[in-house]
Known about the structure:
It contains eight helices and 14 strands. By secondary structure, it is α+β, with helices and mostly antiparallel strands. It folds into three domains: 3-59, Winged helix-like DNA-binding domain superfamily/Winged helix DNA-binding domain (Arc Repressor Mutant, subunit A); 68-269, Bira Bifunctional Protein, Domain 2 (BirA Bifunctional Protein, domain 2, 2-Layer Sandwich); 276-317, Roll (SH3 type barrels), CATH 2.30.30.100. It is elongated. It starts with a helix and ends in a 5-residue tail after the last strand. The mean pLDDT is 88.
Amino acid sequence: METKEKVLSYLEAHKGEFVCGDDIAMDLGLTHSGVWKTMQELKIEGHEIVALRKKGYCLLTNPDSLSSVGIHKYLNDDTRDLRIDVFPKLISTNNYARSKAYSGEDEGYVVLAKAQTGGKGRRGRSFFSPSDSGLYMSLLLRPQLAPNETVKLTAVAAVAVCEAIEALSDDKASIKWVNDIFVDGKKVCGILTESSFLNGSDKMDYAIVGIGINVTEPSNGFPNEIKDIAGHVNLTDTGGKNKLAAEILNRFMNYYKNNIDCTEKYRERNFAIGKNVAVITATDTKKAVVVGVDDDYRLIVQYDNGINDHLYSGEISIKIKD
């Protein structure tokens, strides 16, 4: 455990009370200046720490406030080695994870932000990411996948998110191919997987799986352009966002590390099967009926002319509610 995590765990164990800096240094084997420096780092991350002369330090953080320590508390043995950073605000967690990939960061790095100023959605759209009402997380991977197999990571993440939501709430979650999670007919989560390949080859250098979830309704509500389609989950577990993040990571990494086939679970949750949809590509839009999902997570559609197609990219539009 890093020094920062040790100090935060110590403060959480004495939450609501002041602890002398000298006691922290002695109990954790740190210098007085080391304690002070760590407190400044924790404040930058967004932890509410009050420091008073002759009294010491006091953690005021809400129990549901995201923190690396709070998430690690719920990780299982297979995911406890994940390296997690939490920031008060980032432009985009995917962008930050990409910068780490460029600098040589190994697989298993996770970054979360309490707010994003430039959250990214598919096809160049933005993802609404207000402060403290959502869970915005990106995971850096270095898988051995071909260019057209990136959809597998998105699909497995979608299954993991659905299972995590249902484990911590009374919600029933379903999937709109390929990357959206719905609860009660409204979108509560979007997943964006981005990848990079080594020059002149089809060998993947890295992949970043970005997950954005509306955990609660924003204090000022959703913007007009999405208020009719956006929803939020209804967590009943007291672990809050920290446990939700850990639950997703536990489930996703289990599927990913053990190469577990999730196609049947994905099919069962895909509510587009049997529906009339509009297939949207970069060049046109066609009407079709969704026939199913194949073993590579491609959507099988049948166009009006009777021709079947297997889609591994693009987007579908479907009427969710009357």
